[in-house]
Design brief:
353 residues; Rossmann fold; alpha/beta; Glycosyltransferase; Glyco_trans_4-like_N; 7-stranded parallel β-sheet; 13 helices; globular
């Protein structure tokens, strides 16, 4: 098959990284894959080929006749069998370009989050209903994401399936984050839904009980400067480190004592699977599809916004790591969530259309 993957931007974000990894595995299976980014970006994504860009402006996304035409020209030149829109504005560009320029290829939309968190107003629901009604298949990252989307847009029920996110095997050695301290790691963009504010409250409470704890924050995003200031306000500067531009966080995750994820929403976060693969214990809020991979036998699941319980679970993991739980988590990921297997499920879904 000839497959065109559309991503929002060249950035180190889950949707773009997974689309790149998925595309590589589809190529390894014998398919021909091209990728195009709507907006420019400077991230070096792991796709083995060149990523084209429409070089459009986000502020113009509802009136971008030139961008929709550029996408049409790419489709005419490449002549794909399947087009996959990977989250966010990619859905808008794919549907509007198809409506205006009348190309015939089926559109697959990858639903990677919790739609109801973003779609609040009547207008937003109305316009997104239009876009979703004009795709051929929706691939949700978790059963939770599927249920949320189907509840918000009942017309999507018959064409929505679930294919989880996958991860890559890691061959790099662990990075030593600091032998004389207990290392807590968080990997995620500095956005509201990742809840860095809540994470700092958790860490401040934890630091009062364990002065050897150190928090490592990996990621980029619009709220990074705000979080850096809050670290200083909490007088945690000596115990918090920031990292950016890290293309592969797995060696750092391998070197940590625990990975934490107190997000407000999630679809199915790859970073939890990566930690499990790396034999690093995980503590996360029970939001989105997280309970589909974390149970008492694979990690620590905490009810949303329960800072005290989150802190207690981290301390327990740091002082008494459960080796059976770590082994169970690693086994589950290797059996069910490796990208070379996940890519085959995508290929079957494409062929069904």
């Amino acid at each position: 098959m000839r497959i065109l993957q559309i991503i929002q931007k060249k950035q180190y974000r889950g949707a773009e990284i997974f689309a790149s990894q998925l595309s590589n595995h589809l190529i390894n299976q014998g398919h021909i894959v091209e990728m195009v980014s709507i907006y420019d970006g400077d991230a070096i994504l792991p796709f083995k080929e060149r990523i084209m860009s429409l070089s459009t402006e986000e502020s113009n996304r509802y009136l971008d006749f030139e961008g929709w035409k550029k996408l049409n020209n790419i489709i005419v030149d490449f002549s794909p069998d399947v087009i996959q829109a990977n989250a966010a504005d990619t859905l808008k560009y794919a549907v509007i370009s198809k409506k205006i320029h009348r190309w015939k290829q089926p559109i697959f939309y990858r639903n990677a989050s919790t739609s109801s968190y973003y779609i609040k107003s009547f207008f937003s629901k109305l316009i997104n209903s239009f876009f979703l009604n004009n795709v051929d298949k929706i691939i949700s990252v978790s059963h939770s994401s599927k249920a949320d989307l189907n509840s918000l847009f009942p017309s999507t029920k018959e064409k929505t399936i679930v294919i989880p996110i996958g991860i890559e095997a890691n061959t790099e050695r662990p990075v030593v984050l600091g032998k004389a301290r207990k290392n807590i790691i968080h990997v995620g963009s500095f956005t509201r839904e990742k809840n860095h504010q809540g994470l700092l409250k958790i860490f401040k409470q934890l630091s009062a009980k364990d002065t050897d704890a150190h928090l490592h924050l990996f990621g980029e995003g619009p709220l990074r400067e705000e979080i850096e200031k809050r670290v200083q306000e909490f007088k945690l500067g000596k115990n918090v480190s920031f990292y950016e531009g890290v293309r592969n966080p797995l060696p750092y995750i391998s070197g940590a004592d625990v990975l934490v994820l107190p997000s407000k929403i999630e679809g199915l976060p790859a970073v939890l699977l990566e930690a499990m693969y790396c034999k690093t214990p995980v503590v996360a809020y029970n939001v989105g599809g997280i309970s589909e991979i974390i149970s008492n036998s694979t990690g620590c699941l905490v009810e949303k916004d329960n800072i005290n319980s989150f802190c207690i679970e981290i301390l327990d993991v740091l002082n008494n790591p459960d080796l059976n739980r770590i082994k169970n988590a690693e086994r589950m990921v290797k059996l069910e969530f490796m990208n070379y297997n996940i890519a085959q499920k995508f290929a079957i879904a494409y062929k069904s259309i």
